[in-house]
Every structure is written in structure tokens, then in C-alpha cells.
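Example (one chain per record):
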Amino acid sequence: MPHPHALIDFADPQQPGATALPLAFGEPDQVLVAHAVDEVAAVLAQVDALSRQGHWCVGYVRYEAAPAFDAALQVHAADGPLVWFGVHAQPLPEVASETLPEPTVAWNAAVARPVFDLNMADIHRAIAAGELYQVNYTAPLQAQFAGSALAYFQALRRAQPRAYSAFIDAGGEQVLSVSPELFFDWNGERILSRPMKGTAARGATPADDAANATQLRNTPKERAENVMIVDLIRNDLSRIAQPHSVKVPRLFHLEALPTVWQMTSDVEATTRPGTTLLDVFTALFPCGSITGAPKVQAMRMIKTLEPEARGVYCGAVGVVRPGGHATFNVAIRTVTVQGDKARCGIGSGITFDAQADGEWAEWRSKRMFLERASQPFELLETLALHDGVLPHVDMHLDRMATAAQHFGTPWDRARALQALHALAATHPQGRYRVRLLLPASGHFQAQAFALAATPQPVCLQLAHAPLADAHGEFVRFKTTRRAHYDAFTPTDPGVFDTVLFNAEGEVTECTRGNLAVLLDGRWVTPPLSCGLLPGIGRAVHLQSGRLTEAVVRVQDLPRAQGLAFINSLRGWLDARLV
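Predicted structure:
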């Protein structure tokens, strides 16, 4: 079976959650490329004409193509083709399904915090001076890359599902886009744009998550940011729209992505007879959500703030179907690979009331899809097996099912139980530690290891520094990715585990289990909102009433009347802090 040169996996703009275009394409019959600004219009005209003749055209438009549509739009010199499209007679009937090893990609920081703060101050000065209302400020992440770009795209797609995803192998450059933002969907008559402005991190608990969503919807800064861009796109669409046809049928809609909440709004119109694909790009490109408002002034400032070209990032990636129906994303959450180098931009919209700390946190949340995709991991449950019995097995499977839903991993409870019962049947006597693994393929693997009794009390040490990302998804969900825990593994053989705490000085958990603290005559354990794994042993003791939740700060530990290490594997172990 042939390997794809392009993959399109676009969400259905009209039916959220559904996939409209799951397509694969082989080597293109023809390649259309514009390297210079004065070549862009001709290439888009060719794309339009060939699609109306029955061809599929899959490609991208770089951010630096903007001056082709309006000479007043300032950009850096491009770092690659301004426009690239592969032309195909038809999609592939089927694609090679071999599993490719996922590359490990280590991303560097986008920009140093002092530089970020200085640029934020410059933007605030420009807004205060009345030069503009909003600027979308971005910076590139860089990485060394080795392995298959297609495999990395598949990992990115798992990390960012329900997106407008596209993989394009353009020879010297591969584009891996998993953008959640629709630039436009145009069927030749009706056009829909869905700008994405307003971001909040997902919460550590369902209650926190709901609170974050509510705060996003109701925060004046986020609503103002969204409205500014909606107004800009309404104005852009009016250039190609029939009179009075520009509408905003949906405003401030929240979309739950794996690592962030995003606020979107719908802007739609009926285009004038005779409108071409070139006309649409001339009216809309680049999308206002990644420039700011007004567009000309915002792009002028972007060129000053950002020292290099954005590239495909913040451009558009998409497909034009036979007949001319065109769907393009806004190329955010987009990686480009050139040889052994990978690049991905991260940014946010800056308004007058934007705060540097908040925007920095937003950048961190937005790049989490890269962290998830860049290092392969499997979902994990660690269970006890005592004389053929698996205590609390249903609770373990419930927790793994929640993680599978979060990470988009195939889940089959019956197969999980089958793997565990088969293992238990071969270990009818003795005490064992069981590892139940669930990779992205959805195929379970169960392993058993002899478990010796643990002498009590166990010795615990306090971490030397806060856990950097106590609220991250690899803390909230149990997986094989444990580097953040391994950094705190005790080196003294007499120390059993390490007590962790977050940046606010709140105690969270240990690296291999939860923590119970006897304070003021009652046993308490930190709440999930502090940033910790919802352990099964912890849940059992909360249900029994032996434990209650309470925030425990590091300074509270010296007055603790007792400590305990808890997990479902070893139970309740009396502990002392060394």
C-alpha cells in the first residue's frame, strides 16, 4: 500500500465533533508553488481553476504571503515557499497502516521571560497611545528532530484531537498541523469563519475545570479580545459579502480541548456572485485572530517585536475539493519539520488589560500539546494482587477509563478485565505488584512482579524544590511518563519516598503514593486542587471517613502529629519525615 504525501483530517465545521474530511493523498500529479509575492495570485487562481475542473488541491499559504493581498501588510522575508499546493486526481483508496516509531522531540523555550516582559510593555505602550487595540504576539519553539514526521503528526493528532488536522510532505519541508481553529469554510456561496480568541487552562478537578470555563466566558479581557477580532473579521468578510449578509450567529462559545479551554465565535456571510478563491484570501488573509486589530498596524508591530518569519505558522493550511469547496485552518498548533530541525510557534492576543504573568501561563498551557506528543507514553495502573485477588479493581479501571477519555486512547473495559484475570489465574498464590499498561493502540498488557512486605515506619524526605508542573496532566493522570517524579527519587537507600509540594508551598503527594497528615487531631490529605494524582488508596480512606481533605502547607509539617504514605499497592504505611 502507498504511503501518504498528504493527510487531511478536518473536523466538520457544521457538526462539531464529527469528521468531514478524513482523506489521504499520494504523490501529487502536479505541484503549484509561489516563491515570490508577485506569484501568489497566479498560483491561487490555478488552484481555483483546477479544483473546478475536478481536482483535489491540498496545500498551505505562509504568513509572509500577506503582502500579495495588501502591500500595506508588513512581514519579514519568507523562510520557504509563500504558497505550496499539491494537485491530486483523487484520494488514496487505502493507506499503509504500519506502526512507525514515534520520535522523541525536546523543545526549547520560545523566548526568555525578561524579553517577553519587555515586549509586553511595548505593546501596552502602543495600545495606550492609541496606535492599535490588540496585538497577537508570538515566538517560535525550536527542537532537534529525528525520526518520522508522519509518526510525529499522528502523535500530535492524538494530543490535539477534534482539530482541523493536516500533514503535507512538500519535499524539503513537512507541515504537521493540528489546528483547532477554522479560518474559513466556503462552498462557493456561504462562507463561515470561526475565530478563536480567549484561552484558559483545563482544571485539575471537574469543579476547577468548570470554574475555569466560567471565568473564561465572563472575564472582560477575554470577551473584549474575542469581540475585537469578530469585528475585524466581520469587516473583512464584508469586502466579498452580499449586502447585509454578514452575521454573527454564535458568540463566546467555549470549546474544551485536551489542555485548554478556547473561546470561539462564528462569523458567516453569503459571498457575491463571481467571488474567487483569490478574492477570499485577499479579503481575509492573514486571519485577524493571529494579527490583532487594526490588522495593518498590528502586523507592523509584530514585525518589530518578532525577529524572524513566522512561516506556515499563522498562515493557512487546507484543501480545495473538486468543484471549488475550500476549507482552511488558521495554522496554529502547527509544526514544520526541515531535516533534523522542528519549529512551532506559540502566542496569544495582547490587549490593554492583559497581564504578563497571565499571558506567560497561557503560552505554557498552549504548548502542552507538544509536550504530550513529543515523548511516547502509555496509560498505567498499578494494582495489588493478593492470592489471586485484585483489590479495588473496579476503581482502578474507572480511573484508567477517565485517563483514556482525556488522552483520546481507545478503551475497552472488558479487554482490560480479561488481561487482568488471565494474569491473576497464573498467579493464584502470593503477593504481587501488577502493572496494567494501555498504549495508544488500545491493546492492554498486564505484568506481575513479586511484592515484598514493607517495614514500617517508612522514612520520607521533603523535596528540595517545588514540583514544576504540579497541575499538569501527567500529574493528574497516571502514565509511564514519570520524569517529573523521577527527579525527586531519593538517593539515600534509607529513604522510602519524597514529599512533594507545589509552587504555592502546598504539600501535594509523594512520587509513588499519596500522603496523609495528622493535624490538630484529624487525618487529612491534600485536595486534588493542589495538584496530585487521585490515588485509589486515598479514595478508599476518604470514603471510609478515615481521611478528610485539607490544604497542608510545608510549614505545617513540623507540627504534624503523624504521617502516612498511602497507595492501593502497599496500603497505609506509617511514616516519619527525615
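Caption: The longest strand covers residues 134-144.
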